[in-house]
Amino acid sequence: MNREQVSRVLQQHGASMVLGLLVIVGSLAFDSFATPGNAASVVVSSSFLAIIAIGMTFVIISGGIDLSVGSLFVLGGVLAAYGSQYGLLVALLLPLAVCGVVGLLQGLVIARTGMAPFIVTLAGLLGVRGLMLAISDEGAVTYLVKDRAFATLGQGEILGLSYPVYITVALALVAMVLLQRTGFGQNVYAIGGNEQAAALMGVPVTRTKVYVYVMSGLLAGLAGALNAARLSSGVTILGIGLELDAIAAVVIGGTLLTGGAGGITGSVAGVLLLGVIQSLINQVGSLTSAFQQVVSGVFLALVVVAQRLLSKAQRLT
């Protein structure tokens, strides 16, 4: 294996390697870490962020960014809880429709005007958060999930794991096929690698960009709806900073912030890595949960530096 191949393996699978190492260390250091209950807790709590990270992976590979997903997650939960009084179908379709439209509008503005995704989705973050506060009377009203079938979607279990875990796995598999085995996925990579060259080759740049932001909005809304089903309510104080967690997980998983490289497997590994770090901090006991943000920030900085070094190494070979 030559230097370029080693660099590529480290970039694509580095998060999985670190994840495996931390699991081994945690298992040796803490008796309660490697228990089925703790493992299930990490996987279940990570599933909602993983759904958002799947959409974020497509956005970042295309060379964009989506800061609105945290607000869409909360809005999706509130709309799902509100819609549950009309049954399971409305509880699912209402948040998907609204969050999908937000993603569509953001994608159209970014693709057709050339505005920076950071600015457009930052405006989306603020606008969606305001819409959620208006619906919930500035957070004073908490809608409760009233449909039992919808609640079961978030609380039901198979083999000790809740339904959202299996939904996340299914979405990840579909996203992997979409990204690696379809023309759409290749277009996403091409746009992130060099948008001007992709346009000259006939890649539908505008349409592809719109699709990735619609996908990101839909998945953020779905994650919020499933979380509302799990909690039996549309909690309005969640989702603050969730967009940063999703971005961190995707980048830690090997997706380049500059676009053009990355994958779903790495993003899922990045999500689980953040979950394992949180679990280890809880095992220590003397550290607060806020310490996870410090560790995650250090991880993110190290990964970005490593990506730069690996990219240089690949260019030199």
From TrEMBL:
Keywords: Cell membrane, Membrane, Transmembrane, Transmembrane helix. The keyword GTP-binding does not apply. The chain crosses the membrane at residues 12-30, 42-65, 85-105, 117-135, 158-179, 210-229, 290-310. It is a multi-pass membrane protein. This is ABC transporter permease. It is found in: Cell membrane. It comes from Nonomuraea insulae. Pfam families: BPD_transp_2. The keyword Transmembrane applies.
